[in-house]
């Protein structure tokens, strides 16, 4: 019994009743338009006073409602929002955007017609039934004039009518609640089928998630390469400066200047990346570094930490495409950063950048005997290099060979952007 009472008068039932009344309110403009059609067609001046004509106006207005839903794609978004809030349907079962395809528009039109149809009927019952039910419940306590000047039906003169009237009134209220709960349950059951995402919507959502994930992965690579390289370089620069603090003041000054330059540039790049991650913030204005703009500066700051870097550049950085130049800069930066972190500042690193067979070739080498095993949790840098190379249509290889740790990257000059 409690389950039945909850079905009729529970919180969910009440919210769905409100949803139906909202549908009835939305149906009223279409009913008025239907009256403009039914009145002249039936030669009736007072359609509003005739219940059959009102129902006919309602029937004429529903196709107009379906046409409205088909013509305005945002109807699906508005209806789905109302269903999520009032009918207790999980958000993932409903579409979030406007109806774009013909199938989606057709289903939205069908839903809108059902919502307004059921809502109009339940709204009319909600207006008419409660007052009459209250009248029946109060009937035994009302004294009528003996001369029946109120024009009441003669059936009220029977003695059994006042005795059964309260029961009939309560039954009418329960029947109204049952109609509202049943209609609300039907609409809630049909909502996912009519307002749910179409296959095209699911594909679009998957593509949007993939694009968002790609952006986040790119930002993660930027943070790893930029901040990771800066921390490694600054750590070694500070360590080298501390060791020769009393014997080589000139080197200390160069190391401190390199630390200042490295941190200033990294803060700018970090602000640019975080600006993209923060909702509502515009991206930072720090330009992305490229080989053309900062290869010499990158080598200078790396050498300031004591790492001996021999660089051979057989390519014109100014002639490289901007995207290729930017990604190549990050690859070189990560290669030098790996040497700093894993080989230390006591080895010599050989960097070579050249163009061969319409490809930009980058190699970073350092002696293997000075390179300790990878730190726990490491490997993100090499994975990031491989991702960058793959997105540009190139290849990346890293490993030990003949006592040398070698990173080799090959990028097409005219690859996918």
UniProtKB/TrEMBL annotation:
Gene3D superfamilies, A to Z: 1.20.5.1930, Histidine kinase-like ATPase, C-terminal domain
Cross-referenced InterPro entries: HATPase_C_sf (IPR036890), Sensor_HK_TwoCompSys (IPR050482), Sig_transdc_His_kin_sub3_dim/P (IPR011712)
GO cellular component: membrane
Catalytic activity: ATP + protein L-histidine = ADP + protein N-phospho-L-histidine
Keywords: ATP-binding, Kinase, Membrane, Nucleotide-binding, Phosphoprotein, Transferase, Transmembrane, Transmembrane helix, Two-component regulatory system
SUPFAM superfamilies per the UniProt record, alphabetical: ATPase domain of HSP90 chaperone/DNA topoisomerase II/histidine kinase (SSF55874)
Molecular function terms from GO: ATP binding; phosphorelay sensor kinase activity; protein dimerization activity
Domain Signal transduction histidine kinase subgroup 3 dimerisation and phosphoacceptor intervals: 216-280
EC number(s) given by UniProt: 2.7.13.3
TM regions (residue ranges): 20-41, 53-74, 110-139, 159-181
Protein name, per record: histidine kinase
Organism of this sequence: Streptomyces curacoi
